[in-house]
Amino acid sequence: MLRGWRCRCPACGAGPLFLGYLKVRDHCPVCNEALYHQRADDGPAYVTILIVGHIIGPLMLALYAKWTPDPLITAALLSVASVALSLFFLPRIKGAFIGLQWSRRMHGFGGNERG
After folding, report:
1. Which of 3, 11, 25, 58 is at 20 to 30 A from 40, Cα to Cα?
2. Residue 110 covered by a domain
3. Is pTM beyond 0.85 here?
């Protein structure tokens, strides 16, 4: 999962996991591990919303408790912070989901092995 968090191939840790921002490569260019059968779906988005909400919520409370800023300025600042945090976390969490699937041999990563 840590290799996925770093946006690297879960098998070798050297090859890039993504072709673009969130598009997963079909195969790792270094070790040729097949990555096309991953199924991250909506999980990374839900976890990203959960994490960003747990960061922004207490930040908003602390901001109002200490300074009592103008609501429009607060909304603008926290909106930008929410988008920035979401853009930072989303590919990393998706990589961690793919790393978890790879480590547990889920969704075709393990072939037809039984164990």
Report:
1. 58
2. no
3. yes
